[in-house]
Write the structure tokens for this entry.
Amino acid sequence: MSVSAETFGYVADLVRTQSAIQLAPGKEYLVESRLMPLAREKGLMGPSAVDAYVRDLRRNLDRSELTRVVEALTTNETSWFRDSSPFTALRQNVVPTLRAQHHGTLRIWSAACSTGQEPYSIAMSLLESGESRFSVLATDLSSAVLAQARRAEYSQLEMNRGLPAPMLVRYFVRSGAGWAVKDELRRLVTFAQHNLLQPPPTGGPFDVVFLRNVLIYFDAATKRDILARVRRAMRPGAFLVLGAAESMVGIDDAWERVATTSGSVYRVPGGIS
Amino acid sequence: MRALVIDDSRAMRRIVTRLLQDLGFVTDEAGDGAEALALLEAGTTYDLACIDWNMPVMDGLSFVYAVRERREWRGITLMMVTTESEHDQIVRALAAGAHEYLIKPFTPDALKGKLDMLGLVPARENA
Amino acid sequence: MISTMADHVVAIAQDMFTAMVDGESGALTDRAGEAAVLTEPVHAWVDIDGERPLRTLVATGRGTADRIARALLAMGPQDPVEQDDVRDALGEIANVIGGNVKGLLPERSALSLPVVTFDGREPAGALVWTRSLEWHHEPLVVSMWDVPLKREEQL
């Protein structure tokens, strides 16, 4: 579900006074998805976690927490092929290695898929490299954000971010004032709601998991738990992709590091080199 | 690195020029495709051309065709910067030889992102 | 179709300001119905010559127009804003908004060059819809007009 009007009003005021950015009505889903990780960190769960989090925030008025809220709502990092090198690694390194192991359907899990750019980018990368036997499961905690991802429509501004023009024309059509993902690409991605603190979703074992820029919201012990659960849903030799600035160092040593340009790709031991 | 900004709108030329200069490019401007061709004919070497579509005398698409006909200009990266954003228009521009397509309005980050994708990042020391 | 078009145009205007004027979202907001009073109005418009000729108009007060020009053209805080700067800046805003509107229409059509006036005269034509917006709490009006038949004098 979404946040209460009171929560939204308070957060919108806070963000506007601290950053001059205005959260118009209709952006409740943004407040929910951006603050959910912060709520989780405080141990709050469930559909009213963000409401509870904001209630506590207003009681305590912790300055650093207030800053985190503003930051969470004012950064906009969603882009196609974010950081580019993981997608290059996927094409040049990961898929060829997996194909040396088996010829069945490659199963890929995008585990914090947000508004969908990541899973669709993964699918585009594979199609561009000639792969067609694959499926992408895309999950996120926020059902509001998943609804957007399922709609598969993006504004002109969003289309300008990180998407090469040849792929724009190959995989998208105009839709109203923006663009929509073509069916042939849309069909390759399935969306589902999933909480990383719970057992992995069905659809595994996975050959590749993208777990980018979401572990940062958890403490070290929880990170290890999540990684352990994720690993259990992966085949031997399967690949894990973290965010560009993330690493396993000090968290979990059960993975093999894969030497790529970004350094954020890991492998479940037991695969073929 | 040197860039050519081609647009009949003085405001857009100013905006794009400033963004490119901030990124380290040396820039020249032209108000239409013919003026831009004249600069190329005069012998200046460009790494990048940012091209509006709708311009008098010679429009952006015609300019792209003209540049891609000449082997000595193969090294110029051609990026359309325009409000024209029908699917088939982008297809036509790419088919004519444009390398990239930036739809207006665009953020400075979007422009930089396109240039990063194209490998056009001027070394600051040389700027 | 009319209200959808107006919604689209407001969204395009907001994208334009976010991307190229303010560098962040939220400054251009919908006043939702409250009429605007413009001091020393500046009008900037482009025409789309499709089956149904349409005019997209952006109007704001001279002071606001100066500030928009300063932001869009990244002028320094002490640089004087000349009328030509305002003409260029508002003309480009009308051009980008009108260009995107053109993309929403079913048939292929051409966009005119922008026209910018400082004399307060609104262009001729029948109003199709109008939306009052605010840029940093200063009024800015976006409207769409049916362009009169060509026998009327155009500016």
The interface with chain B takes residues 12, 15-16, 18-20, 23, 72-74, 88-89, 91-92, 95-96, 99-100, 102-103, 111 of chain C (CB under 8 Å).
